[in-house]
Design goal:
homodimer, 4-stranded parallel β-sheet, 16 strands, alpha/beta, Aldehyde Dehydrogenase, Chain A, domain 2, Aldehyde Dehydrogenase, Chain A, domain 1, globular
């Protein structure tokens, strides 16, 4: 019998009602049991993963991709630990925000509730299967998971662990669907099921995200890229500035919260850029510099407009000197991807104005862009980072997988 | 020179930055000046409206449509008064929610910010032009307005009032675009401009909303229909129940918060339904009743599945008797449009459970569904009602036209 995504989505919608009604303790116990199933079933997960790895080698996947795909006992334990950590977080469902009494006499508040059914579309990392399922369940949602075909055996083995925990708690197995068919047609059909599915979160390369955004009839959380800016103001503490530059550019280059452009006020170019150049040279950083900064860097290339837009994801940075604070704001507004921007300044008013005026998802004063991450910002586990403003903006934790309804308590009032 | 929606949207995006940076007082003064311009320019607005009405009569628009289209001095004053009221509301932008200190030392909060550029697509009521512009500006957004072709002259005359107020405050006129071309091609192109426009709100018939939802690459706030349920529990105070039924069904039938289905617990069918039947008969209400309730109504038709789904928007109601509380929940979950549902019961636990379990946008205990409205729920003016859960759910006021960014205040912290 072939798999029908329309049927699975409809069953998930029904199961979502059951999951929405679990209380915090039931959901947390379910998560702990999923974690335990992962430990118990480590041998069968590894056996399935072996199949994927063997097929991957046969299909000449590159080393980085094979590494993302690979599981071992410690990675499985890490996945299980993350689920236990999610179980320990505050329940996002059921909170009521301040209830107000209206002139009519009715009392009006808002209660946080699950979204319903969430579909995740992702590429080769099998840990996403468990992370996403755990966060969606924590927020009271059903979830449909469509991973990459390279990881299918691993994902199905992980799904068995979830299924056994659902069964133990008498929860409809349709609450977590791991799509057993990685055919593109299934994904295309999934994106039309707006009667059953409330949200799609694509995780992976820009091509995947753009494809889903342009073809889905279901709302999509988009995360295109992170072109993060660091602005060193004329009133910067340069020691802080240099540390923040070093941390943001060199700690990890392949992540979206790493720095891509350094913007420097002209009054401190002469004092700051030589130190920046020396530090970046130590890390063999490729420099793309504007005409007013290129003289400070040996071997720098002249920056073009493409550099202001670039997400290098490499030991590579664009550098621009600006005339004043206003020009720094303009540069960032023009080229920002809406992810994370940082000002380094000791001037109170300028930090306040930067924070107020720059409308990226995360705006910082005197801190490293590397803090732009769900865990570091206090959200716990993260299901993605939104760079579009609707529904969620920035790192998304369990609360971003919920919404709020209005609740009204009356005593027989009618409208006059 | 012909109108280019792509250019207009790009200019609106630029203007949005300026509007986002206006403070509360500047925005409120702008709104007051728009209201004043409406009063001053009443003669020219009426002259433009005359043209639309004449064309409408020539094109055989029906009386209801001509009435929606028509302006007179008191309607214009009403529109102006609504703008002044919006000016008086609390500013939704700039609020910072509780700032927490993280283990790393950084302080993390969230600040409310405008969405950017909002497009409204609506039908014949010219008041929407001003209401929508005022709410979008209040929330710090630029706005693109595309009204129906029947109201084009009126809308352009209203736009002049906005333009004069923007000019007085030196605000980029691109902040409010009234599209001067009601060609379908312009709307189709608008829906592709996801680089410039952040949100589309269609207001009008189901056909319009469905068309926009299925064709837009920009997120859409959907409001399909309101199939509102009233459940009379076995522990209901029947006087309250009857008042709430009367208010919900008979006060205004053409609105989405009117009642469409009455669900009654079997234990009180015999005591409640005769009173309900008498009251509904006084209002000449057409009844579609289930087999267990049809005997209480003279001249009732047998209800079909279509009746459970129906939004009558008329003096017409579906009636169902259920065996118990659980079956009432099931019926509502199955047929709800996600708008508004009401329980009437004196039993504390059942009201709490109803409010917790029914995940419609507005859930009420012992109050009339007619309160499901932005003004009545304390939001002030309303830009629409969302029956989809993403971003906004239920009546939307100015705050629904904003989002939140993360703000981080550090003192040189870097990530370890």
């Amino acid at each position: 019998m072939s798999f029908s995504i329309a049927d699975a989505a409809q069953q998930a919608k029904k199961a979502a009602r059951q999951v929405a009604n679990l209380n915090a303790e039931q959901k947390n116990q379910l998560l702990v049991d999923i974690a335990e199933a992962l430990s118990v079933n480590t041998p069968s997960i590894l056996a399935a993963n072996e199949k994927d790895l063997a097929a991957g080698k046969e299909n000449n996947l590159d080393a980085a991709m094979l590494d993302r795909l690979a599981l071992d006992p410690s990675r499985i334990q890490g996945i299980a630990d993350a689920v236990v950590e999610i179980a320990g977080q505050v329940d996002p469902v059921g909170n009521i925000s301040s209830i107000q009494r209206m002139p009519s006499g009715i009392q009006v508040g808002k209660m946080r509730i699950p979204l319903g059914v969430i579909a995740m579309i992702y590429e080769s990392r099998p840990n996403v299967t468990i992370d996403a399922a755990a966060l969606c369940l924590k927020a009271g949602n059903a979830v449909i998971l469509r991973g990459g075909k390279e990881a299918l055996h691993s994902n199905l083995a992980l799904a068995e662990c979830i299924k056994s925990a659902l069964a133990k708690h008498n929860i409809d197995p349709a609450a977590v669907v791991v799509i057993p068919d990685t055919d593109r047609a299934v994904m295309n059909e999934l994106m039309t099921l707006n009667e059953s599915i409330d949200l799609i979160i694509p995780r992976g390369g820009e091509g995947l995200i753009r494809f889903v955004s342009e073809n889905s009839r279901i709302p999509v959380i988009q995360h295109f890229k992170g072109v993060c800016h660091l602005y060193i103001d004329s009133d910067a503490d340069q020691v802080k500035g240099l540390n923040i530059l070093k941390n943001g550019k060199t700690q990890r280059t392949g992540v979206c919260n790493s720095l891509e452009t350094l913007v420097v006020h002209k009054d401190v170019a002469e004092s700051f850029l030589p130190k920046a150049a020396a530090m970046l040279a130590e890390h063999n950083t490729v420099i793309h510099a504007c005409e007013n900064s290129i003289g400070y860097f040996s071997g720098a290339q002249a920056a073009t407009v493409d550099d202001w837009h670039a997400e290098y994801l490499a030991m590579e940075i664009a550098v621009r000197v600006v005339d004043d604070f206003e020009q720094a704001i303009e540069h960032i507004e023009e080229y920002s991807s809406g992810h994370t921007e940082v000002i380094v300044s000791q001037d109170y008013s300028k930090t306040q104005e930067f924070i107020r005026r720059i409308n990226s998802a995360v705006v910082m004063a005197n801190a490293s862009s590397r803090f732009s991450d769900g865990g570091q910002l206090g959200l716990g586990a993260e299901i993605g980072i939104s760079t579009s403003k609707l529904h969620a903006y920035g790192p998304m934790g369990a609360e971003s997988l919920t919404t709020e309804k209005f609740i009204v308590m009356g005593d027989g009032e009618v409208r006059s």
